[in-house]
Every structure is written in C-alpha cells, then in structure tokens.
Specification:
The chain is α+β, with helices and mostly antiparallel strands. The protein folds into two domains: 73 residues, no CATH class; 139 residues, Electron Transport, Fmn-binding Protein, Chain A (Pnp Oxidase, Chain A), CATH 2.30.110. It is built from five helices and nine strands. β4 and β5 form a beta hairpin. α4 packs across α5. The longest helix has 13 residues. The chain is globular and about 50 Å long.
Length: 219
Amino acid sequence: MARFFCRSRGDCDGHEHGTLFGIAHCLWCRPPFDTSKVLYPLYRIFVGPGTSESGDAVSRCCDSRDAPPPAVATYQWHTVPVELSEALELAGTRHQSVLVTMRANGRPQLSNVGHVVSDDGLIRILIPSEVAKYKNLLREPWASLHVTREDFNAYVVIEADVELSSIAYEINDETVDELVAVYRVMVGEQPDWSEFRERMVREHRVVVRLRPTRAYGVL
C-alpha cells in the first residue's frame, strides 16, 4: 500500500491514510470520489504521468484537490469501426494472431495462429483438420482474427466469412501447393520442401481462407 500524507484539509487532523493503487486523496476528508480519481492513477501506473490542458504535469498528490486531473476520456482507447484496408495493412505487418471460431454451444473458441495476408485480400491460416477449430469452421464458416501491433498500443479485429481448402492427401496436390506458398511467406524458405510436403499430408493440413467483411479496433 502506498502512503500519501493528506494536506488538503485541516479537518483531517493530518492523518496519514493508506492509498490503494496510488489514489491521490484522503479517504477521510474526501469521502465521495468519482471514477476519474480511480482510473487516472491506474492509467499512470501502467502508462505514465499525464499532462493538463496547459501542458503541466498532473500531480497525484491530494494537494491537487482543486485542480483535478484531466478527464479520463482523454486517456481512454475507444474501439471504433476500421476500414478494411487499414485493418489488413496492420494484419500484414504481423504473422501472429488469435483466431476466434464458434463452438456448437455458441461460445467462442480462441486459438493462437499464424496468418498471411495475401495480395487478393484473403487472409490464409494453416491448421490440421483434426483440431476443434476446423470442426467449428465446418459447422459455421465464420471467424474473426485479432491482430495486435507489436507495441500492444493498437489492434484490429477482422470478421470474415470462411472458405476451407480440401484436406492435403497427396504431396503434389493443390492444397499442398497452397500450404507451401503460405508457409514460405510466413516463415521463409525451408531446407527441404519435400519433407514439408510429406508432413502436411501426414497432419492432414488445410488452408483456412478468411474473406474479410468488417473490422473494428484501435489504430
């Protein structure tokens, strides 16, 4: 528990009061407090100090009672609709994402996946056909993909209709050719593509093709 000495009112008898999360006021002499007094100190803990409209650093000491920190909305991130082109641009800078599919009971299932944004506007993912998300997509061909910028300060969620390739059965079939093309973009050249093709067949891999329909997030 951080400790702050309250000097804002004489009627608090100069008590020291424990302050959870660095909330900057005396809980004795300032009993009712609004959420901005709670959320703003939390923001400072995770992000850093803010500034007032005049550009001065905002203090979290309870001396600043008559000069409260700026409105919390100044610091909030609001999820808003995002243009598909902008969402795909961010998704194209990363190959790590979270795929959301729907279980039979209507609840979401989330999986870490690797993805590639293709020139044709499709997002391609490689998965084995034995996993639950493949069965989910067979039953309901819809998914969303959550992609976060590397610094974690921006993200997009891309909702999409889903197409599934046929299961890889032969090392030279069209599905395996597509798997090779996607993996080459995602990871790079492999020392032995023949071994890779055989592994794709052994694992009964498929290509999940996401056709984006809408996006939202924070950019």
